[in-house]
Inverse folding.
């Protein structure tokens, strides 16, 4: 299961839409490693002058890697995080997460990061089974 959904939130979802704040809180509580990592990358972006910031350190265990994969493989979760933090997230190699300023999404660095070439250049034997 990806998220630990409180009964009250599930009830509201069954009756209709839930707001982003409730959804993002559920993500934060259910996927704490992914939340901390993405929050950290966004913090690095906010504190820097560059158009993006990224994390290149693999998760410490498969549990944490699973959280990151669940967060970024779900359109709803990824979209909720992007709206919450006001960034565009990009992902490579089941651990390399980047946060881009919205103004950088059409730029060269973003396109290079999400390109097949960027993915191939970010490969290493150590990460083959991640």
């Amino acid at each position: 299961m990806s998220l630990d959904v409180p009964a009250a939130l599930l009830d509201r979802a069954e009756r209709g839409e839930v707001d982003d704040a409730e959804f993002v809180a559920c993500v934060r509580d259910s996927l704490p490693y992914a939340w901390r990592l993405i929050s950290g990358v966004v913090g690095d972006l906010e504190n820097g002058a560059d158009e993006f910031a990224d994390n290149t350190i693999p998760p410490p265990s498969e549990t944490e890697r699973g959280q990151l994969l669940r967060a970024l493989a779900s359109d709803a979760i990824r979209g909720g995080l992007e709206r919450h933090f006001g960034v565009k997230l990009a992902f490579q190699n089941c651990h390399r997460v980047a946060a881009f300023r919205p103004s950088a999404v059409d730029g060269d660095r973003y396109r290079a990061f999400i390109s097949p070439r960027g993915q191939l250049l970010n490969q290493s034997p150590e990460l083959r089974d991640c």
Notes: The beta strands are 52-55, 88-92, 96-100. The chain has one domain: 32-127.
